[in-house]
Amino acid sequence: MNRFEGTKVLLTGGGSGIGRATALRLAAEGAAVFAVDLSGAGLAETAAASCGPGRIATRVADVADEDAVVDAVRAAADELGGLDVLVNVAGIHRTTPIDRLTVADLHQLFTVNAVGTALYCREALPLLPDRTGVVVNVASSAAAHGNPYMTAYAASKGAVLGFSLSLAAEVAHRGIRVVPVSPGSVATPLAGPHVLPPGLDVSYFGRIRSPFGAAEPEQIAGVIAFAASRDAGYLTGAELRVDGGSHI
Ligand code: NAD
C-alpha cells in the first residue's frame, strides 16, 4: 500500500530506534524522506535498510543548533521539492535523582527534546501546505505518568506535549494537523537500565512495563505513520499514548 506516494517528509532522529523505524515505514509506503540525525553512521544504516518504493535522503545535523535547523529545513525542501510532513523524533534520555540534578542536565534535556522540536516546527511550518500539512511530535508517556529519576526528562517531554497542543490550536486555521505521539517503554538504545547512573535502584523499571512488554520501534512507527496519513485527517491536538497499557 503506497499511502505516502508523493509525500515529502522531514524527520529528525532517523539514525536509530523509533526514528529509523518510522523513516523505513514511510519510505516503504512510498514517501520521500529527508532524515536528520547527529549520527552519520546511524543515518547510513537507515538509508541502507530502505527497500523503497520511496527513498531516504540523509543529513547530519544537531536539532539543538538553531543555524543547523534552519539549514536542514531548507536543504530538505530543496532535496524533496517541498515539504508535506514534519516528524520530530530526535531525543535524549537521562535518569538522575533529584539531589543530583544539575542545571546542565536540565539545559541539555530541554534543548534537545523541547527546543529542537520547537525550532523544527517554526522553520518547517511556513513550508507545509495548507489543508494537508502534518506535524507529528514524539513526546513520552513519562510526560503524564510519574517515574522516579525521570523528573528532568519528563519535564522536557511535558514541554513537547504542551507545545504541540498549543501549536495545533495555532495552525488549525490553515488546516494543518499537529499530533503528539507518546510512547511508553520501547526497545531502543535510548531506554534500559544502562541509562541509570551507578548506585540507583533499577527495580522501578518493572513499574513502567506494559503487560505486553516493551514495544518494538516498528510498533511506534506504525502509529506515527497513521497520524501522518490521510486516515487521520480529523485528528489534531490530541495525544496518541502508545504505552501498551502500561497504566491500565
Ligand atoms: P534512540 O536513541 O534509538 O534514537 C534517538 C535518535 O535521536 C538517535 O539516532 C540520536 O542520534 C538522535 N539524536 C539525539 N540527539 C540529537 C540531536 N541533538 N540532534 C539530532 N539527532 C539527535 O532512541 P528512541 O527510543 O528511538 O527515541 C526516539 C524518541 O522517542 C525520543 O524523543 C525519545 O525521547 C522518545 N521516547 C522513547 C521511548 C523509549 O522507551 N525508547 C519512550 C518514550 C519516548
UniProtKB/TrEMBL annotation:
Keywords, comma-separated and alphabetical: Oxidoreductase
Domain Ketoreductase stretches: 7-174
PROSITE patterns reported for this sequence: ADH_SHORT
GO function term, MF aspect, one: oxidoreductase activity
Domain of life: Bacteria
Record InterPro entries: KR_dom, NAD(P)-bd_dom_sf, Sc_DH/Rdtase_CS, SDR_DHRS6-like, SDR_fam
Pfam family, one: adh_short_C2
Matches recorded under Gene3D superfamilies: NAD(P)-binding Rossmann-like Domain (3.40.50.720)
Family: Belongs to the short-chain dehydrogenases/reductases (SDR) family.
PANTHER family reported in the protein's UniProt record: DIHYDROANTICAPSIN 7-DEHYDROGENASE
Protein name: SDR family oxidoreductase
Native source organism of the sequence: Streptomyces coelicoflavus
